[in-house]
Specification:
By secondary structure, this protein is mainly α. The chain folds into 2 domains: about 80 residues, RNA polymerase sigma factor, region 2, helix turn helix motif (Rna Polymerase Sigma Factor, Chain: A), CATH 1.10.1740; about 90 residues, Arc Repressor Mutant, subunit A (Orthogonal Bundle). It has 9 helices and no strands. Helix 1 crosses helix 3. The longest helix has 29 residues. The chain starts with 5 loop residues before the first helix and ends in a 7-residue tail after the last helix. The relative contact order is 0.07.
């Protein structure tokens, strides 16, 4: 269609810029990220279109935009997961996080709030979280107590964190 014609490319970008942005933004939910992904979409269009037979440009752009946005979101999720993978091993127990200058009443109220929230968790997740984070037990110790494999404990911790992300709101802890 445009076969490397830069002026035609510019016209297509002008015509579909907002359309592609809206599609990408609906998936990634962040304007800067949507801009980055949108650039990838148009770069893909510029490099692929001369070699691709496209019957409906708008439909093709939509499909590319959705796929690029989903790929971007997956990559970002994987990077967040990789960044937090080692946190369990390096996280100090809650007793070490306390400050001597902290108001004991505020600390008590916060601990009560956390315990109430923990009681909302499904029991198998709650037991693993408490054992790991509050009782400072290793994966192996918890696995031995529950008579399961270490991998099962790691999976339960992962699922517990996912459950928390879905059901708890950060504002509740401020």
């Amino acid at each position: 269609m445009i076969a490397g014609d830069e002026e035609s490319f510019r016209e297509i970008v002008r015509a579909y810029r907002n359309y592609v942005f809206q599609i990408v933004f609906s998936v990634v939910r962040h304007p800067k990220d949507a801009e980055d992904v949108m650039q990838e979409v148009f770069l893909k269009m510029f490099t692929s279109l001369p070699h691709t037979e496209v019957k409906g440009l708008k439909a093709w752009l939509s499909r590319v935009a959705v796929n690029k946005a989903i790929d971007y979101k997956r990559k970002a999720y994987r990077q967040r997961e990789m960044a937090t993978d080692g946190m369990e091993e390096t996280m100090p127990p809650p007793s070490m996080l306390r400050s001597d200058t902290e108001d004991p009443l505020i600390h008590k109220e916060f601990r009560e709030l956390v315990m109430r929230k923990l009681n909302e968790l499904p029991e198998n997740y709650r037991d693993v979280l408490i054992a790991f984070y509050y009782e400072d037990k290793s994966y192996q110790q918890i696995a031995d107590e529950q008579e399961v494999t270490v991998q099962t404990i790691k999976s339960k911790l992962y699922r517990a964190k996912q459950w928390i992300k879905q059901h708890w709101k950060e504002e509740e802890f401020k």
